[in-house]
Amino acid sequence: MTISTIKALAASYLQKAPADFVVNGVDLLLAALNNARKAAELLHDFNANRVSAQIQVDPTNGANLSTAVLKGTNTAVSLKEFITFYLADTNGEIPLYHHSKKNIAVWMKERNWNARGRYLSTEVRYPDDQYLRTLRIGPTEVYIDGTQVYIQPTQESTTTLYIDGVKWMSDYTSNSDSDWMTTHGHQYLMWACVCEVNYWTSTFTPNFDGNLSPPEKLRERALDQLVQWDSFQIEQGRQPRGIR
Hints:
By secondary structure, this protein is an alpha+beta fold. 36% of the residues lie in helices and 22% in strands. It has helices at residues 3-13, 28-43, 101-114, 129-135, 180-184, 186-201, 216-235, and strands at 22-23, 26-27, 50-57, 63-64, 69-70, 79-89, 92-96, 98-100, 141-145, 148-152, 159-167. α1 (3-13) packs across α6 (186-201), α2 packs across α6 and α3 crosses α4. The longest helix has 20 residues, at 216-235. It is elongated and about 90 Å long. The two termini are 44 Å apart. The relative contact order is 0.20.
């Protein structure tokens, strides 16, 4: 189903033509559909939006997530979530833990506290756990400061990180646009569009005379069904654990 079809359905429920919703050069129906799509993305990580991306991390300046491209290409991708970071290695991709910058700072303060009064240049023949925690540099990990990504310990040169992530979907810009959500989530998009644009038309105005209220329950039910369908895509295909 295309954007044009969904707009026509929404306009029909509001007893108008799609052209009536172009106000001051703004297509209210198109704006409402984009708002509905973004609201669903904020609520749930849809499987269709999962991507493999990569960034180039500078030893000093790190890398901004806005520079991410699809893995193996130069195609830019806007990442919504990052699930796992991998270090590009000749032997394969090495998954890394990732943390916030605050966590790194707390751990460093703990090491400084453990190191108080010690001479770290002195060799200890039988170091205890406390001493090892003081000296530990730690495994290679990723830490994130806002949208900036760094590798700890600092690498000697620019390093490639691969990312399993979730992308933001592209905005709808024309009547011919279509994607997986217009195909499988058109019911949600239509009811969400009707609810939003109803603020302009006042078609649904509940009162004592028995007029209908906006179809908010239909919108929420359609969104819940879309999320439930997406959530069970992987779960239903899992193999049972254990050996029969």
